[in-house]
Write a structure and sequence with these properties.
The protein has a single domain, classed as N-terminal domain of TfIIb, CATH 2.20.25. About 20% of the residues lie in helices and about 25% in strands.
Length: about 70
């Protein structure tokens, strides 16, 4: 993924920066704990297509954790 493009893309929910996971071909939002897929070199920035990362389940089980 082009680093210039990565600098422009933000999470569609929180508008925060994304991290590129080259091995999984995903863009990660650490704040929302979502992973957006990259298919055929194109980032799919649809919330419906994102998957929750492992930390999301743990945070949901923690009392007082942010949604």
């Amino acid at each position: 993924m082009d680093s210039r493009l990565l600098d422009l893309l933000v999470c569609p929910i929180c508008k925060g920066p994304l991290q590129y996971d080259r091995a999984a071909q995903e863009l990660l939002c650490p704040r929302d704990r979502l992973a957006f897929p990259i298919r055929d070199g194109i980032a799919v920035m649809l919330v419906e297509q994102a998957r929750e990362t492992q930390g999301a389940a743990a945070a949901a089980d923690t009392p007082g954790a942010a949604p």
